[in-house]
Amino acid sequence: MDLPAIARLRADLAAAHFTQAALDGLWGPDAADALRRNERLPALRALAALRARTGEPGALATLAELFLLGGRVPESEVQAALPQLGADGAIALGLLWPASAELIAPERSLRALLELRPYEFTDSRGHASWWITSDLGELARGGPLGEDHVLGVGGASRTLSALMLQNAVDSALDLGTGCGIQAMHAARHAGRVVATDISQRALELAAFNAALNEIEGVEFRLGSLFEPVAGERFDHVISNPPFVITPRVEGVPSYEYRDGGMVGDALVETVMRDAAAHLTPGGVLQMLGNWEYTAAVPDAFDRLQGWLEPALDYWIVEREVQSATRYAETWIRDGGTRSGTREFDQLFGAWLDDFADRGVTQVGFGYVLLRLSDETPTMARLERLHTPLGDNEWGLGVHLGNCLAAHDWHAAQSDAEFAEACLTVSGDVTEERHYWPGNEDPSELLLRQGGGFARTISPGTALAALVGASDGSLSVGAIAGALAQLLEVDEAELRAELLGGARRLLDDGILLPPEA
């Protein structure tokens, strides 16, 4: 890897202000919105209008036309946009290549071989801006993707990076790294990171991206799933594996970035079954996955529980369910095949036949968090949360980490010890009351969570009162005793009810444990 050349590229990108905000300003909100739908014409028209007004496109416009829109750009403009790296340097790095149709022109034009785009995020360590290379997408290619396509940062990648726990650890593993984005995120909280992939090309691009963004401490290894780390354990395993359920029949493309080569959801099952052997005590695996609902096992959660080792804590959240038909449509289009074509109908038929043969009715998508317990597991959560997430400024991972810490704290407390604890209400929780006209007492009381999973719960009168009184000055037991007198109910029964309710609210991040 030519590190000096990569450093020159980095300097040129910074000098051009090649950022998402600058790009949105370059072609305006309408064109930016169209690009998110894979429509480039409005952006191309905006750049053409800019050229007509100024005569020179400027470095930012040149880089955008090359690396995001798949355009062909005269070499002199490339040279102006990349003054330190130069056109020949970009060719040597594998970023650009002469456009064959222009070879006989007085000045050669260049086209991109890779997509290069800015990427920005905020986590608990602050705001960061990176640049990420990947294979050209459908928009720039003008057709379906290749089966060895290396995907850039998509919706699933952003979901997993936002979910990622951010507690400092010694070691992390990115299983199926692709362009390397999760390994780069993990490097912000892990002392060392191992990133694996079955694709040598993906590993090369991932290593390039780490070097481009001056990220150290990442080791890249070739191989399938856990094979490259046999016998090793990690504090944190992150995986956006190739979990897409694809028919294993001739004529159906198998994309390395999304198809793991196994039947149905067997790849997700394999990762979950093998997780415990690669986690340190207390170590956590986080992954995205699909799981099938079948006629034989109508509830997919019954299947998921059968994949779990007894030593694991688990928290699995299903975020969406699609019918077999909708699922097939989604992933055929994802590969760049357009609806209404003969190719689309052939692929659609293959998908539907596969689902029918195996009795698949629906496919779920969600988040998997597994933790290797160093004692007896205390967490067993299976949830269907199909509603929008809350506002998580530093990512959902911070909320998950806080919930795990709160769970571990109260799970270690006996009921007598827990009753002595003084809890507080999370700052993102609000109370909502509904009244029938003319009534003084509310007909319904709701607690709403602004962050996290944006939960809305109906706690009942006593638990709502406990939440309202939890300002850190009164213990759970004292509040329960006062409420028993006020409501004229048996104190022991109410105390048991409120202790259980308070533990659940700690698990959800609605109540917070005492400060250490």
From TrEMBL:
Name the SUPFAM superfamilies for this protein. S-adenosyl-L-methionine-dependent methyltransferases (SSF53335)
Q: Which Pfam families match?
A: DUF7059, MTS
Q: Can you provide one Gene Ontology molecular function annotated for this UniProt record? A: methyltransferase activity
- Gene3D superfamilies for this protein: Vaccinia Virus protein VP39
InterPro entries in the cross-refs: DNA_methylase_N6_adenine_CS, DUF7059, Euk-Arch_PrmC-MTase, SAM-dependent_MTases_sf, Small_mtfrase_dom
Keywords attached to this entry: Methyltransferase, S-adenosyl-L-methionine, Transferase
Q: Where are the transmembrane segments?
A: none
Q: Which GO terms describe its biological process?
A: methylation
PROSITE patterns (alphabetical):
N6_MTASE (PS00092)
Which residue intervals define the domain DUF7059 in the entry?
A: 15-103
Question: Which residue numbers delimit the Methyltransferase small domain?
Answer: 156-291
Q: Which family does it belong to?
A: Belongs to the eukaryotic/archaeal PrmC-related family.
Q: What is this protein called?
A: SAM-dependent methyltransferase
Query: What species is this protein from?
Result: Microterricola pindariensis
